[in-house]
Amino acid sequence: MEANSSPFKIILGSSSVARRKILSEMGYEFTIMTADIDEKAIRKEKPEELVVALAEAKADAIISNLHKIHTHEKEAEPTILIAADTAEAILGRLSIDDYIKDAQPTLLITSDQVVIYEGVIREKPDSKEEARQFMKDYSGGHAATLGSVLVTNLKTGFRKGEWDQVEIYFHEIPDEVIDKLVEEGIVLNVAGGLIIEHPLIIPYVKEVVGTTDSVMGLPKALTEKLLKEAI
Q: Is the model's pTM score more than 0.70?
């Protein structure tokens, strides 16, 4: 789809450079808003439930901030919103405003991702040491990424989210490569310290069962499907 032909506006609720790149590659123009939530306060036993719950919490926080902006509360502190106010309640207030009634439909995309290694959920590493251990674990082995995409139509209140899983198998990764990636710091900012598109790691990726864009945090096919359903 040509970016300028889109019948709706898009807000990407993420600061991820990779997600921004993927959505641009899909041909969409969009604005960016980020959610200020305490991700560690949201826990689920199943990784599928966790990534969807986190994407929902991010959407709720962004919608809350949009409401504040629209009601001229621009000086308010960012809201950490977990369960105190639901998206449905906020959208219910928004929908009565002429601004929303007359506005072009706006679709909010939020997402989250974890890595699953030997049945254990891994989020972003807490330290360089943990990132290094994560990567040593993957060396000669395999892990899976599990990511969610949630699309919310801010005009109608429609909301739908799904998840996507990818299996990644690695050759042995030399310690010097792991050290370079850790010192560079990029693996500290991704779930499980797992990255497959970096030039240093590409030669050691044995097989990807799924799509690279999903591993990078935004599966194109699923995102496109949910955008169409939301509009």
A: yes
Tokens standing for 207?
Answer: 């097989």
Residues comprising the chain, all counted? 231
The pLDDT confidence band at residue 160, using thresholds 50, 70 and 90, is: very high
Sketch out the chain's domains with CATH numbers.
9-73+90-230 (3.90.950.10)
31-32 vs 106-117, strand pairing mode? unpaired
Q: Mean pLDDT over residues 82-92, rounded?
A: 46
d(CA 219, CA 86): 26
Residue ranges with strand state E in the chain:
9-12, 31-32, 106-117, 120-122, 142-153, 159-170, 205-209
167-197 per-residue burial string, b: 16 or more CB within 10 A, e: under 16: ebebeebeeebbeebbeeeebbebbbbbbbe
State the Cα–Cα distance between residues 113 and 148, nearest whole angstrom.
6
Give the pLDDT confidence of 132-158 residue by residue, as tens digits. Answer: 999 999 999 999 999 999 999 999 999
Three state DSSP letters for 137-182? HHCCCEEEEEEEEEEEECCCCCEEEEEEEEEEEECCCCHHHHHHHH
For 103-130, the pLDDT digits (tens) are 579 999 999 999 999 999 999 999 999 9
Rounded (10°) angle between helices 87-94 and 47-70:
30
One-letter amino acid at 199 equals P
CA-nearest of 172, 170, 144 to 51 is 144
